[in-house]
User: Fold this.
Amino acid sequence: MPSTSGGIEGGSVNHSGDDVSIQNKNELSDRKMEARRDDMLENRSQFATKSRHHTTRKKTKRRKLLISLNVSATKYEIVRKVAHEFGNLSDLDEDPSCFLFWNDTAVPNERVAELKPYQRVNHFPAMGEICRKDCLARNLAKMMKVHPHEYNFSPKTWVFPAEYSAFQCYVRELKRKNKKQTFIVKPSNGSMGQGISLFRNGERIQQQDHTIVQEYLDRPFLLEGYKFDLRIYVLVTSCDPLRVFLFNDGLVRLSTQKYAAPSDGNVEQLYMHLTNYSINKRSENFQRDEDVTKGSKRSIQFFNDYLRKNDYDVAAIWKSIADVINKTLIVSEPHVLHAYRMCRPGTAGNDSVCFEILGFDIFLDKSLKPWLLEINRAPSFGTDEKIDLDIKGALLHDAFRLINMKPSDRRKGMAAQKAESRRRLFRPSKRLDLDLTDIDRRKIVVDRRKEELKQKLISIRRDNAREDFENRNMGRYQRIFPPPDKSSQDRYRKLISDAFNIFLAGRAASLQKEIAKLLNGSLREDEIIDMLQACDIEDDGKQKLFKGPKPLSSMPSVVDEIPECDSRASSPISTSPHNSVTDFKTRLTASQSQSQLNKAKNPIPKRPQSAQKLTTSSRPHSARLTSAYQRTVNRKNQPYQLSASDGNLNEISTSAFDREEEMMRKTLMALNDMRIKFPGKTDEEADIILNQIQEHWKYHKPRIASYWLVKLDSIKRRKVIDIVRSNVRSVLQKMCRCPDIESLKLWRIFYRLFNRLLWSHGQGLWNCFSSNTSCSWDTIFHKNKDSISGVEFMCCERVIELCRQCLLIVYQFAAEAKLSMPSGETNSPTKQLSSSQLSNSRTSPWLPSSPHKAMTPVSQRMSRLYLNKSLDNLAS
Ligand code: ADP
Assistant:
């Protein structure tokens, strides 16, 4: 495609026709033509942009029309307003097919049970376990017994009447030690500061039902002399598994009378000791202000600025607040998950039908330690002031985006339900088992295992896709659970495990077992794929023994000879046509060492070195990727730029960069030096093949698309990507000189990248061949533009290029393999070639020119598919 921008820029110079160098009319008319053409191109590109915007707008509108939301059970106007941005409001309670039901109060479990998979409700069952003051106190106390140092963020509490005597003992002990302590008494299920009173002398507190008594925290962090608490908004999108988001703004609610330590004279002054808006708004000192930095209600953003200005460590404070929130939700998790599973049995792994916006009330003491006061499951969405409107509107909007309601969910949900019932219907009956032979019975076991693993794989991929979506749509939320760092993950895993043991002791045995299994080591995607391969091997082995070879389905096949270098040559795996791609992958390392041996005897012609590769590439390189890089580099403050001197990166003084940057640059070099080897061909031949495919792209495009997107199943697609992934992994391991690269930022970036490539059944990689920027892989970084540096981006570009090349080579390899089969058995991409094309292609340098070469055993050629740079040399 011609570059429109270049043309437009070129055309604009001569538009006026003033150019003195124009000598004759012909030249003038040429230029005019050129300018007109550029104008046309510009108009066309403007039209394309306009129509793209128009289509997006139309899509959003259509999507909105197809979603109906029931907000009849809310009194808050802001909820209605935001909901209306996402769909049609349906106030009819009778409409059972709504996508969302919003309730100001908790909903009964039956309602949750009745929901269809595509529907959502804004409450979880059993969340009351942390949202009622007495339940919260009881549950936290249980966890505190096991983890006293982790659960020390709640003031000491007694639940009356059960713990009245324990409280009396405590008060007597205080008296004996001559210690003074103020207590605060609250109704167990109260809110808005109603029924709260303070006592200087605990002995005077009467035994009452449905009450809690708490130690009063008498050293608050003060703001301009006033006590305050923080209303923090937390969105829980799922309990199975737990997913929690923290909104980056909220309310700072100040009391209206300057604070003084509690004394007999001031304990009754609620405007001094309570920070509730509902109490303080009655005070004559209450200040309403349009400005979020003044008044009795301020924003958390203002508070952060205030802390920053006064040299407090804001990040550390928010880290500890997020920790308090996570630990509290870990306490609720066994209750909520159990109740949720009871309501919705058999839906594990599906999208959650429940979500909840919780209001955490956090108190900061003098040392800025956060204390949990209470959690509101129905935080007020009242918008008395502008600050409420701004903050609550934004947090609702972002929450609606994150819960991701799509019109297609309804259809997909129905299809999934049908599939599930069909699966149940056709499950082999146990009674039939009696008639089966041992072989068949073993086959059934393997099939079940495979089915189980496939389900796990699907759920892992769904989780990855969900995470990807969340990353792009979090808005002002930040994911705090699961946490990003490994040490927190390990710590929380332990706490969750203990919470399940404590709260579900003797109950829900199967759930307990499942959680324990999950926590003890959830399988990674690649591990599951390996296990599936093992099942395949078992299957194929049996089939070899009992049923003869399995017919070819999609990957290169026909194994006449077993390569000598392969130690597993005699195993049925290497002869299985279904493991061709596995062989690509598993033989990479072996073939690398083999290649080194070969090199000594028979040196392979040298490929361009990294330095040359950085500036020019003989392999097809999409212009779009370059411009994508340009876009990213442009938005960086200090972009990494390659200069002419970068030609020899080894000469760059190491002292000029910090270690990480150097490692990154070395990784980039190593990646640039990597080559995908075509079995049985030299690197030059491989290059020619790739260039030929590029040249005849029109012809190959539909064939490659059908090969990649239709013929290969998801496992084989993954195996192709894994050829690159496993080698990139080895490079990184060498570079950072440690086998555990999971925590490495670059690996995490690559991890997202590989997932992106496999996105939507391999559509991700296929999109990388397209010139359409809107489906570019780099959109995964759009939300968080600063998360990737220039070098990291270049590494990603190189990885994408390797993946593209790998696909092309595997495709071509498959085509050649089919060509080398006896006629009649072929069903390859090249089968459809017309006879003239076929004769052309046979004489072309990238298809076997002699029958002898065509008949080279495929497995032997495959075994030489490797990335030809020796990894051992890379870390030097
Ligand atoms: P409600 O649900 O009625 O608002 P809270 O537990 O939130 O009850 O308490 C109301 C207010 O009382 C809080 O906003 C806070 O200012 C104050 N408060 C509550 N508990 C304590 C405590 N243990 N120490 C100090 N102040 C407290």
